[in-house]
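S1.2 Input.
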Amino acid sequence: MRVWIDQDLCVGNGICEELAPTVFHIADGAIAYVRDGDRLLPNGRDGMLQVPEGLEEPVIDAAEECPAECIYIET
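S1.3 Output.
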């Protein structure tokens, strides 16, 4: 499973970071990023991450709870 964010739609709610802090981070004036360790990935599909094993459920929850619906999951 892979995940990415369309930051143009992000409203900075922070629910993604709350639910899956290993995968998401809020930065740059309340914009969500997908993170790969300490590295913040770029916007859109260029910032796609293979979700680490065991974190699939929190990432799915974050996508479902996101008010902006800007988190995309690909299987």
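S1.4 Remarks. The radius of gyration is 10 Å.
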